[in-house]
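Record 1 of the preview.
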Amino acid sequence: MNINKAKLQRLLHQYLNNNISREDCIELLNYINDGDLHGMEELIDAESFDLDHGPEFSSKQSADLLNKIKSDPRFGSLKVAQIIPEQKSPKFYQSKWIKIAATALIFFTAGLLFFQHQKNNTKINTSQLNNNSASIIIPGSKKATLTTSNGKVILLNDAANGVLDQTNAGNVVKINTGQIVYHNSGHSSTASALVYNTLSTPKGGEYQLILPDGTKIWLNAASSITYPTAFTGKERRVSLTGEAYFEVAKNKDKPFYVDVNHTHIRVLGTHFNIEAYNDDTEMTTTLLEGSVQLTKNKALSFLQPGQKAVIPNNSDKIAVSTANVREAIAWKEGYFIFDDEDITGIMKKVSRWYDVSVSYKDSVDDQKFGGTFYRAKSITELLQYLGKIGKVHFAVEGRRVIVMK
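->
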């Protein structure tokens, strides 16, 4: 199909502004389906779409959005074949251009559903998410507490940069917002002199830690890690609750251990993520590089890069499979990735990051969601997007989010 740039730009503009006719809608969607993508991304960006300002959807969500458009009463008897020719429909799920189709569909559907929800939905409307309650809920930030061996508690987000504490091995230094470092003095200490510190993040907090051996740790919200202020003896050992990403400094003579949920993870020099919240039914370890050995009681397993191990809290079974590495470390990079995830799992992440409680008025466990959303954006925007791509609605009362059909 041939179409000139000016006409395509006009169609995109009408599409994104929710004033496109049925005939022009058919022409635009057929053009997208035809696969001629030259200039499409630039034109869509020119119409103010940018993945940095909204979610990126999977093929499943794109199909859901298309179904919403097809069911719009304004299209009347519009046939599926008129929008996407049947013989070409498999193209709609090809990864190269699914984002292009999703991009246009997102904007058209966003505007359409906004007005449909305000007009027809008696359970909740957008104004309920834009009230004063929602406005006081802000995304998480760099905040944590450091508890020293003598019980001293330091609020790191309030502390000035510089030396926070002195240990028998050296200084604890805050070097910038969201990061503390242990500087060894060079004096050796005996195993009997080992002292431990604990770094804890609240809901709505995250922090980075550099251990005395140079190991880097990113701590997600509602998490805690306990570690010695100096590593002595033949091993390096820490304990974790919640979620953390590790970049372990290499030392073949002194293996690094993470103790979590009665499981011991042994590494030498490795990059990996551990998700092990107390309110989850299982823990997941995802390996990016190096090697990992996991043991729980008599169970033993090894991971290769690109694999994950899932261990139920009430079982010793270790299930190893291919991992979605990008999804596993998305939180560290500043965004959520939902990969065919149910609303309960999503709302646990929302609760931890935005520091809210969640309650359910209806059962919505049968729905799955996918997509990408930046954690710096407001909870209002996130809930609105979830409401637009699924049969789920939200209300906000103070710091409580209510989920309903």
